[in-house]
Amino acid sequence: MIKKVGSFVVVIALLVAAIIYSAMTGSIKVGILDLVQGLFSGTNDQVEVIKDLRFPRILVSLLTGAALAVSGVLLQAVMKNPLADAGVIGISSGAGLVSLTVVTIFPGLFFWMPLFSFFGGALACYLVYALSWKSGLSPLRLILVGIAINATFTGLGQSFNYRGSYAVTSVNQAISSIFTMKTWTDVQIIGLYGLIGLLLSLLLSSWCNMLSLQDKTAKNLGLRVTRARLLISVVAVLLASVATAIGGLIAFVGLLVPHIARTLVGSDHKVLIPFSALGGALLILAADTLGRTVLAPTEIPASIIMTIIGGPFLIFMLRRSERVYGN
């Protein structure tokens, strides 16, 4: 119990420190006192610029990280696979591809990108289930099929980069993870859909706990397993899709954060889900802040930083799963 409380206190303290540091540093730098005074007085021009440009970026980073991390927790629970992550098994790339394709053909539908992203994520999730099902779900087969689907969708999405049309440029945020020029409208969209998804995930936490049991045991406890898997998958796809539509394609968040969180607060989803949301928010904000400050004025996308970190972690998890499943 002490370890859990201490972990929450530490991650919240780090999150607050990261938010303050991210707001203070960058192309415009202000001190903490100037920042606080400017927020309340509205007379500091630099703070006004930070409010218009940097605060939306920070909030989008936080919500994107929280959504992706919780999506990973839900996918791992419903698929019973420790390697399941929206960015690894193709849900994020499917969401990006479908939204990019539709909005490229019909640019007037730009503001419906989150909806199209959801359809794309749902399509990818269905393909992962359908193509990996063979007299049951094999964890290793599921992740390999997911990686193949992710590669396919990613390749198709990247092919749009070479077309160079205005429409593609205008919707390029679906396949990139540059948080530059995020607006308060982006914050409203990801805030609405993201918070709905996070709230639903908390309500489904007891089902996630029961799905960790054998299906027969869960049924005997009164859980309708198929319906539970379907609803949890829908929430996971919703979180990953809205994060992709607004924050871009970022892999490995849903892989890294849940595993670290389990070592700190355990596997009870009533605790794991909120802790993972905080951890994911901290991770993406730290990656974005690092990316825009380490080589300033050049920016490194958060997705590249996450790939550098997440690639070796995925290899570690694959080797670990081989020991677990004996393949």
List the helices and strands and how they pair.
Elements: H1 2-24, H2 32-41, H3 45-79, H4 91-105, H5 113-132, H6 139-159, H7 166-170, H8 184-203, H9 205-211, H10 215-220, H11 225-247, H12 253-265, H13 269-293, H14 302-325
Helix pairs in contact: 1-13, 2-3, 3-8, 3-11, 3-12, 3-13, 4-5, 4-6, 4-11, 5-6, 5-11, 8-11, 12-13, 13-14
Protein architecture, described:
It is a single chain. Helix content is about 75%, strand content about 0%. It has helices spanning about 1-25, 30-40, 45-80, 90-105, 115-130, 140-160, 165-170, 185-205, 205-210, 215-220, 225-245, 255-265, 270-295, 300-325. The longest helix has about 35 residues, at about 45-80. The protein starts with a helix and ends with a helix. Mean pLDDT is about 80; it is low at about 165-170.
Search tags:
76% helix, 327 residues, mainly alpha, globular
Beta-strand fraction estimate: under 5%
Described by strand count, sense and barrel closure, the largest sheet is:
none
**Oligomeric form:** single chain
Q: Considering DSSP H and I runs of 4 or more, what fraction of the residues is helical? A: over 70%
Q: Terminal Cα separation, in Å?
A: 36 Å
Sequence stretches where pLDDT stays below 50 over 5 or more residues: 166-171
Order of helices and strands: HHHHHHHHHHHHHH
Shape type: globular
Number of helices: 14
Average residue pLDDT: 82
The count of β-strands is 0
In short:
This protein is mainly α. Helix content is 76%, strand content 0%.
